[in-house]
Amino acid sequence: MASKRRRLILTTIARNKGLVALVAIGVVLLAAVVAFFHALWERQNSDAGSVREDALWATYQTDREAGKLLLALQDLAAGRPGGSIGEVSRRFDILYSRHEVMEEADFPGKFRSDPQLHDLTERLSAGLHAVLPMFDRFAAEKRATAADLDSAITAVSALRGLTEELLVATNHTQLALQVDEREGITRIYAWLAGTVVALMLAVGAVI
């Protein structure tokens, strides 16, 4: 009985090869549609974009604090109202903490280890650690000579140049990645539309 049923099925398939082929194609196309929808869902729910936005914000904060530190040093050196060694120390501590947040977040890695960003972050880190002993001495002695302030202003000006360059490079990289992602989503939508049309044609042919 089972062998007769098997022969009947094989005979039916042999007589309807075209129909079976269309059904098989329809199944493959349906699987492709599901795969494309899954790819779109993953892109829409990916946290990579928000992580990069956080990294960009951390870069902006670092650049901003470098500017405030430079202004505090210039105020103290010029004897302007509000200029004090305490304010300089506070501004350096904030800048250093902002930099630590950026380092702990593996900043270059969030941008696919971009070589330019990696080089800039390395130089910024080296520059901050180079001036760390000087600002520690300012905080301990509660004073700074005119020569010390000149050296500090020169060093922090160089750091500010690095943070500005890093901010521009980060923003440029972020925009480029967003363009790539949008183009990728557009390609998936195009493939999905083509697959749906082909699936509808296959179903129509079966009917």
Please give the structural blueprint.
Elements: H1 2-15, H2 17-44, H3 48-78, H4 85-104, H5 115-141, H6 146-206
Structural notes for this entry:
Helices cover 87% and strands 0% of the residues. The chain contains six helices and no strands. The protein is rod-shaped, with a radius of gyration of 31 Å. The chain has helices at residues 2-15, 17-44, 48-78, 85-104, 115-141, 146-206. It is mostly helical and 207 residues long.
Features of this protein?
207 residues, mainly alpha
Main sheet attributes: strand count, strand direction, barrel closure: none
User: What is the C-alpha radius of gyration, as a whole number of Å?
Assistant: 31 Å
Query: Hey, roughly how much beta strand do the residues contain?
Result: under 5%
Helix amount? over 70%
- Main structural class: mainly alpha
Distance between the termini: 31 Å
Enumerate the spans where pLDDT stays under 50 for 5 or more consecutive residues: none
N to C succession of SSEs: HHHHHH
What number is the mean pLDDT? 78
Number of H- or I-type helical stretches: 6
Overall strand count:
0
Summarize the structure.
This protein has 207 residues and is mainly alpha-helical.
